[in-house]
Specification:
The chain is of the alpha/beta class. The protein has 2 domains: 4-192, Rossmann fold, CATH 3.40.50; 205-306, GMP Synthetase, Chain A, domain 3, CATH 3.30.300.10. Helices cover 45% and strands 19% of the residues. The protein contains 12 helices and 9 strands. The strands form 2 sheets. The chain has a 5-stranded parallel sheet with strand order 3-2-1-4-5, sandwiched between helices. Strands 6, 7, 8 and 9 form a 4-stranded mixed sheet that branches. Helix 1 packs across helix 2, helix 1 crosses helix 9 (175-184) and helix 11 (212-231) runs antiparallel to helix 12. It is globular and about 65 Å long. It starts with a helix and ends in a 13-residue tail after the last strand. Bound molecules: xanthosine-5'-monophosphate. Xanthosine-5'-monophosphate is lined by residues 102, 145-146, 149-150, 196, 198-200, 240, 274, 311, 315-317.
Protein backbone atom coordinates (compact mmCIF):
# COMPACT_ATOMS: atom_id res chain seq x y z
CA UNK A 1 0.00 0.00 0.00
CA UNK A 2 1.35 3.44 -0.92
CA UNK A 3 1.37 5.79 2.01
CA UNK A 4 4.03 8.39 2.69
CA UNK A 5 4.81 6.54 5.91
CA UNK A 6 5.47 3.25 4.15
CA UNK A 7 7.61 4.83 1.52
CA UNK A 8 9.65 6.64 4.13
CA UNK A 9 10.17 3.49 6.22
CA UNK A 10 11.24 1.57 3.12
CA UNK A 11 13.60 4.32 2.01
CA UNK A 12 15.21 4.63 5.41
CA UNK A 13 15.92 0.90 5.48
CA UNK A 14 17.26 0.89 1.93
CA UNK A 15 19.51 3.91 2.53
CA UNK A 16 20.93 2.44 5.74
CA UNK A 17 21.60 -0.87 4.06
CA UNK A 18 23.21 0.86 1.11
CA UNK A 19 25.57 3.31 2.80
CA UNK A 20 26.18 1.59 6.14
CA UNK A 21 28.49 3.81 8.18
CA UNK A 22 29.90 5.68 5.14
CA UNK A 23 29.72 9.42 4.70
CA UNK A 24 27.37 11.01 2.17
CA UNK A 25 27.59 14.34 0.37
CA UNK A 26 24.57 16.19 -1.04
CA UNK A 27 24.30 19.34 -3.14
CA UNK A 28 21.35 21.13 -1.55
CA UNK A 29 19.67 23.67 -3.81
CA UNK A 30 16.61 24.44 -1.74
CA UNK A 31 14.39 22.96 -4.46
CA UNK A 32 11.86 20.28 -3.58
CA UNK A 33 13.86 17.25 -4.67
CA UNK A 34 17.18 17.97 -3.00
CA UNK A 35 15.35 19.22 0.09
CA UNK A 36 13.42 15.97 0.45
CA UNK A 37 16.60 13.95 -0.08
CA UNK A 38 18.30 15.99 2.66
CA UNK A 39 15.44 15.40 5.08
CA UNK A 40 15.29 11.70 4.26
CA UNK A 41 19.03 11.11 4.52
CA UNK A 42 19.24 13.09 7.71
CA UNK A 43 16.59 10.87 9.24
CA UNK A 44 18.31 7.74 7.96
CA UNK A 45 21.94 8.47 8.78
CA UNK A 46 22.07 11.73 10.78
CA UNK A 47 25.56 13.19 10.92
CA UNK A 48 26.96 10.95 8.23
CA UNK A 49 25.33 13.43 5.84
CA UNK A 50 26.97 16.70 4.82
CA UNK A 51 25.12 19.09 2.51
CA UNK A 52 26.74 21.76 0.40
CA UNK A 53 24.56 24.73 -0.44
CA UNK A 54 25.97 26.99 -3.15
CA UNK A 55 24.72 30.57 -3.09
CA UNK A 56 25.35 31.68 -6.67
CA UNK A 57 24.09 35.22 -6.13
CA UNK A 58 21.14 34.46 -8.40
CA UNK A 59 18.69 33.29 -5.76
CA UNK A 60 15.46 34.95 -4.72
CA UNK A 61 15.12 37.37 -1.82
CA UNK A 62 16.16 35.73 1.45
CA UNK A 63 16.39 32.29 -0.13
CA UNK A 64 19.84 31.41 1.18
CA UNK A 65 18.91 32.31 4.74
CA UNK A 66 15.70 30.35 4.41
CA UNK A 67 17.53 27.20 3.36
CA UNK A 68 19.97 27.56 6.23
CA UNK A 69 17.26 28.20 8.78
CA UNK A 70 15.12 25.27 7.65
CA UNK A 71 17.88 22.70 7.45
CA UNK A 72 20.73 23.80 9.66
CA UNK A 73 18.87 25.55 12.44
CA UNK A 74 15.58 23.68 12.62
CA UNK A 75 16.45 20.20 11.51
CA UNK A 76 20.06 20.05 12.65
CA UNK A 77 21.35 18.99 9.26
CA UNK A 78 25.04 19.69 8.65
CA UNK A 79 25.01 22.25 5.83
CA UNK A 80 28.01 24.09 4.44
CA UNK A 81 26.96 27.35 2.80
CA UNK A 82 29.27 28.58 0.08
CA UNK A 83 28.97 32.22 -0.82
CA UNK A 84 29.98 32.14 -4.47
CA UNK A 85 28.25 35.28 -5.74
CA UNK A 86 31.52 36.94 -6.75
CA UNK A 87 32.66 33.92 -8.67
CA UNK A 88 29.40 33.49 -10.59
CA UNK A 89 28.92 37.16 -11.39
CA UNK A 90 32.57 37.47 -12.35
CA UNK A 91 32.21 34.65 -14.86
CA UNK A 92 29.03 36.16 -16.26
CA UNK A 93 30.58 39.56 -16.87
CA UNK A 94 30.09 40.67 -20.45
CA UNK A 95 28.04 37.58 -21.36
CA UNK A 96 24.55 38.15 -22.72
CA UNK A 97 23.71 35.02 -24.73
CA UNK A 98 21.14 32.91 -22.81
CA UNK A 99 22.64 29.50 -23.58
CA UNK A 100 26.12 30.77 -22.82
CA UNK A 101 24.88 32.08 -19.50
CA UNK A 102 23.31 28.71 -18.68
CA UNK A 103 26.52 26.90 -19.53
CA UNK A 104 28.65 29.21 -17.41
CA UNK A 105 26.32 28.94 -14.43
CA UNK A 106 26.21 25.13 -14.73
CA UNK A 107 29.98 24.79 -15.04
CA UNK A 108 30.70 27.23 -12.25
CA UNK A 109 28.32 25.29 -10.03
CA UNK A 110 30.26 22.11 -10.65
CA UNK A 111 33.57 23.86 -9.96
CA UNK A 112 32.42 25.38 -6.70
CA UNK A 113 30.78 22.17 -5.56
CA UNK A 114 33.86 20.19 -6.47
CA UNK A 115 36.16 22.56 -4.54
CA UNK A 116 34.00 22.30 -1.49
CA UNK A 117 33.61 18.54 -1.75
CA UNK A 118 37.34 18.01 -1.94
CA UNK A 119 37.71 19.65 1.48
CA UNK A 120 35.48 17.08 3.12
CA UNK A 121 37.31 13.96 4.25
CA UNK A 122 36.36 10.35 3.56
CA UNK A 123 33.16 10.79 1.65
CA UNK A 124 32.10 7.69 -0.27
CA UNK A 125 28.67 8.64 -1.55
CA UNK A 126 27.09 11.42 -3.50
CA UNK A 127 23.32 11.78 -2.94
CA UNK A 128 21.11 13.17 -5.68
CA UNK A 129 17.51 14.24 -5.95
CA UNK A 130 16.88 12.34 -9.16
CA UNK A 131 13.19 11.51 -9.46
CA UNK A 132 11.46 9.06 -11.77
CA UNK A 133 10.68 11.54 -14.57
CA UNK A 134 14.40 12.52 -14.63
CA UNK A 135 15.32 8.88 -15.09
CA UNK A 136 12.97 8.58 -18.04
CA UNK A 137 14.17 11.86 -19.59
CA UNK A 138 17.84 10.89 -19.33
CA UNK A 139 17.09 7.52 -20.85
CA UNK A 140 15.34 9.19 -23.78
CA UNK A 141 18.23 11.70 -23.96
CA UNK A 142 15.83 14.42 -24.98
CA UNK A 143 17.34 17.82 -25.44
CA UNK A 144 16.17 21.10 -23.98
CA UNK A 145 17.53 23.68 -21.64
CA UNK A 146 16.04 22.23 -18.49
CA UNK A 147 17.65 18.88 -19.16
CA UNK A 148 21.02 20.31 -20.00
CA UNK A 149 21.20 21.80 -16.56
CA UNK A 150 19.51 18.83 -14.96
CA UNK A 151 22.19 16.67 -16.40
CA UNK A 152 24.81 19.00 -14.95
CA UNK A 153 23.27 18.92 -11.54
CA UNK A 154 22.14 15.34 -11.39
CA UNK A 155 24.44 13.18 -13.41
CA UNK A 156 27.33 15.47 -14.36
CA UNK A 157 31.06 14.80 -14.15
CA UNK A 158 31.10 14.77 -10.40
CA UNK A 159 30.76 11.08 -9.59
CA UNK A 160 33.47 10.01 -12.02
CA UNK A 161 35.92 12.70 -11.02
CA UNK A 162 35.44 12.18 -7.35
CA UNK A 163 34.96 8.45 -7.40
CA UNK A 164 31.76 8.65 -5.48
CA UNK A 165 29.01 6.09 -5.52
CA UNK A 166 25.51 7.40 -6.11
CA UNK A 167 22.62 7.21 -3.70
CA UNK A 168 19.32 8.34 -5.23
CA UNK A 169 16.47 7.58 -2.86
CA UNK A 170 13.76 9.31 -4.97
CA UNK A 171 14.54 7.47 -8.19
CA UNK A 172 11.23 5.62 -8.28
CA UNK A 173 8.98 8.44 -7.20
CA UNK A 174 6.84 10.99 -9.00
CA UNK A 175 6.82 14.63 -7.99
CA UNK A 176 3.55 14.49 -6.05
CA UNK A 177 4.86 11.51 -4.09
CA UNK A 178 8.09 13.36 -3.34
CA UNK A 179 6.02 16.29 -2.05
CA UNK A 180 3.90 14.11 0.22
CA UNK A 181 6.99 12.52 1.66
CA UNK A 182 8.51 15.95 2.20
CA UNK A 183 5.54 17.10 4.24
CA UNK A 184 5.58 13.86 6.23
CA UNK A 185 9.26 14.42 6.98
CA UNK A 186 8.42 17.79 8.47
CA UNK A 187 9.51 20.16 5.72
CA UNK A 188 7.51 23.40 5.59
CA UNK A 189 4.69 23.08 3.06
CA UNK A 190 5.60 26.43 1.41
CA UNK A 191 8.91 24.82 0.56
CA UNK A 192 7.43 21.55 -0.65
CA UNK A 193 4.72 23.15 -2.78
CA UNK A 194 6.84 25.93 -4.21
CA UNK A 195 6.72 26.77 -7.90
CA UNK A 196 9.66 25.38 -9.87
CA UNK A 197 12.73 27.60 -10.02
CA UNK A 198 15.29 27.07 -12.78
CA UNK A 199 18.85 26.00 -11.91
CA UNK A 200 20.35 29.17 -13.48
CA UNK A 201 17.99 31.17 -11.26
CA UNK A 202 17.69 34.91 -11.79
CA UNK A 203 20.51 34.54 -14.32
CA UNK A 204 17.91 33.81 -17.00
CA UNK A 205 15.39 36.32 -15.67
CA UNK A 206 17.70 39.29 -16.08
CA UNK A 207 17.75 39.62 -19.82
CA UNK A 208 21.19 40.02 -21.32
CA UNK A 209 24.23 40.68 -19.16
CA UNK A 210 23.71 40.01 -15.45
CA UNK A 211 24.52 42.98 -13.21
CA UNK A 212 24.51 42.68 -9.46
CA UNK A 213 22.40 45.78 -9.08
CA UNK A 214 19.74 44.52 -11.47
CA UNK A 215 19.59 41.22 -9.60
CA UNK A 216 18.82 43.21 -6.48
CA UNK A 217 16.06 45.15 -8.24
CA UNK A 218 14.55 41.96 -9.63
CA UNK A 219 14.64 40.26 -6.24
CA UNK A 220 12.61 43.04 -4.66
CA UNK A 221 10.03 43.08 -7.46
CA UNK A 222 9.71 39.30 -7.57
CA UNK A 223 9.25 39.17 -3.82
CA UNK A 224 6.36 41.64 -3.96
CA UNK A 225 4.65 39.65 -6.72
CA UNK A 226 4.94 36.34 -4.87
CA UNK A 227 3.97 37.83 -1.54
CA UNK A 228 0.79 39.31 -3.03
CA UNK A 229 -0.05 36.06 -4.82
CA UNK A 230 0.12 34.25 -1.50
CA UNK A 231 -1.84 36.92 0.28
CA UNK A 232 -4.62 36.77 -2.36
CA UNK A 233 -4.67 32.95 -2.25
CA UNK A 234 -3.64 32.86 -5.90
CA UNK A 235 -0.22 31.27 -5.47
CA UNK A 236 -1.45 27.68 -5.59
CA UNK A 237 -3.78 28.43 -8.48
CA UNK A 238 -0.94 29.22 -10.83
CA UNK A 239 1.79 26.76 -11.78
CA UNK A 240 4.64 29.22 -11.90
CA UNK A 241 4.93 32.96 -11.37
CA UNK A 242 7.88 35.31 -11.34
CA UNK A 243 9.20 38.71 -12.35
CA UNK A 244 11.64 39.40 -15.19
CA UNK A 245 14.09 42.29 -15.37
CA UNK A 246 14.09 44.09 -18.73
CA UNK A 247 17.24 46.07 -19.44
CA UNK A 248 15.36 48.86 -21.18
CA UNK A 249 14.30 52.18 -19.73
CA UNK A 250 11.02 53.96 -20.04
CA UNK A 251 9.84 57.33 -18.85
CA UNK A 252 7.47 57.58 -15.93
CA UNK A 253 6.40 59.95 -13.21
CA UNK A 254 6.89 58.58 -9.73
CA UNK A 255 5.73 60.95 -7.01
CA UNK A 256 6.46 64.37 -8.47
CA UNK A 257 9.52 63.25 -10.32
CA UNK A 258 10.06 62.32 -13.89
CA UNK A 259 11.88 58.99 -13.95
CA UNK A 260 13.71 57.28 -16.71
CA UNK A 261 13.92 53.82 -15.25
CA UNK A 262 13.73 50.09 -15.88
CA UNK A 263 10.80 47.87 -16.75
CA UNK A 264 9.69 44.76 -14.86
CA UNK A 265 7.63 42.09 -16.60
CA UNK A 266 5.40 39.79 -14.60
CA UNK A 267 4.85 36.23 -15.79
CA UNK A 268 2.30 33.75 -14.40
CA UNK A 269 1.25 30.56 -16.13
CA UNK A 270 -1.06 27.61 -15.67
CA UNK A 271 0.15 24.24 -16.89
CA UNK A 272 0.21 20.57 -16.04
CA UNK A 273 3.39 19.49 -17.77
CA UNK A 274 5.28 22.75 -18.44
CA UNK A 275 5.53 21.73 -22.10
CA UNK A 276 2.56 23.91 -22.96
CA UNK A 277 1.08 26.61 -20.80
CA UNK A 278 -1.54 29.33 -20.80
CA UNK A 279 -0.95 32.71 -19.22
CA UNK A 280 -2.81 33.04 -15.96
CA UNK A 281 -5.84 35.32 -16.15
CA UNK A 282 -5.07 37.10 -12.90
CA UNK A 283 -7.65 39.64 -11.74
CA UNK A 284 -7.04 43.19 -12.98
CA UNK A 285 -7.34 44.56 -9.43
CA UNK A 286 -4.66 42.18 -8.32
CA UNK A 287 -2.29 43.17 -11.14
CA UNK A 288 -3.01 46.79 -10.37
CA UNK A 289 -2.01 46.33 -6.75
CA UNK A 290 1.21 44.49 -7.61
CA UNK A 291 2.16 47.12 -10.16
CA UNK A 292 1.61 49.98 -7.73
CA UNK A 293 3.64 48.30 -5.03
CA UNK A 294 6.54 47.55 -7.36
CA UNK A 295 6.75 51.05 -8.81
CA UNK A 296 6.42 52.65 -5.37
CA UNK A 297 8.70 50.35 -3.44
CA UNK A 298 11.40 49.26 -5.84
CA UNK A 299 13.93 51.95 -6.72
CA UNK A 300 14.85 52.09 -10.39
CA UNK A 301 11.56 50.70 -11.75
CA UNK A 302 9.08 52.99 -13.44
CA UNK A 303 6.88 50.57 -15.34
CA UNK A 304 5.39 47.08 -14.98
CA UNK A 305 4.02 44.95 -17.81
CA UNK A 306 2.17 41.62 -17.76
CA UNK A 307 3.16 38.87 -20.17
CA UNK A 308 0.14 37.48 -22.03
CA UNK A 309 2.00 35.04 -24.26
CA UNK A 310 1.10 31.37 -24.15
CA UNK A 311 3.51 28.47 -24.61
CA UNK A 312 3.71 27.97 -27.50
CA UNK A 313 4.65 30.32 -28.99
CA UNK A 314 6.48 31.75 -25.97
CA UNK A 315 8.53 29.73 -23.52
CA UNK A 316 7.75 30.13 -19.85
CA UNK A 317 11.07 31.77 -19.07
CA UNK A 318 12.11 34.79 -21.14
CA UNK A 319 15.54 33.36 -21.91
P1 LIG B 1 10.58 27.04 -20.64
O1 LIG B 1 11.13 28.41 -20.45
O2 LIG B 1 11.49 26.15 -21.45
O3 LIG B 1 10.52 26.39 -19.19
O4 LIG B 1 9.16 27.03 -21.17
C1 LIG B 1 9.88 25.19 -18.84
C2 LIG B 1 10.18 24.90 -17.40
O5 LIG B 1 11.57 24.62 -17.22
C3 LIG B 1 12.17 25.56 -16.34
N1 LIG B 1 13.50 25.89 -16.90
C4 LIG B 1 14.67 25.45 -16.41
N2 LIG B 1 14.95 24.67 -15.34
N3 LIG B 1 17.25 24.88 -15.83
C5 LIG B 1 16.24 24.40 -15.05
O6 LIG B 1 16.53 23.70 -14.08
C6 LIG B 1 17.05 25.65 -16.91
O7 LIG B 1 17.98 26.06 -17.58
C7 LIG B 1 15.68 25.94 -17.22
N4 LIG B 1 15.09 26.67 -18.19
C8 LIG B 1 13.76 26.62 -18.00
C9 LIG B 1 11.24 26.76 -16.32
O8 LIG B 1 11.37 27.50 -15.12
C10 LIG B 1 9.89 26.10 -16.46
O9 LIG B 1 9.43 25.60 -15.23
Amino acid sequence: LWTPDNIIEDSLATIRAQVGTDKVLLGLSGGVDSSVVAALLHRAIGDQLTCVFVDNGLLRLGEGDQVMSTFARHMGVRVIRVDAEERFLGRLKGVSDPEQKRKIIGNTFIEVFDDEASKIQDVQWLAQGTIYPDVIESAGAKSGKAKVIKSHHNVGGLPDDMNLKLVEPLRELFKDEVRRIGVELGLPSEMVYRHPFPGPGLGVRILGEVQRHDAHTLRLADHIFIEELRRADLYDQVSQAFAVFLPVRSVGVVGDNRQYAHVIALRAVETLDFMTARWAHLPYEFLDLVCRRIVNEVPGVSRVVYDITGKPPGTIEWE
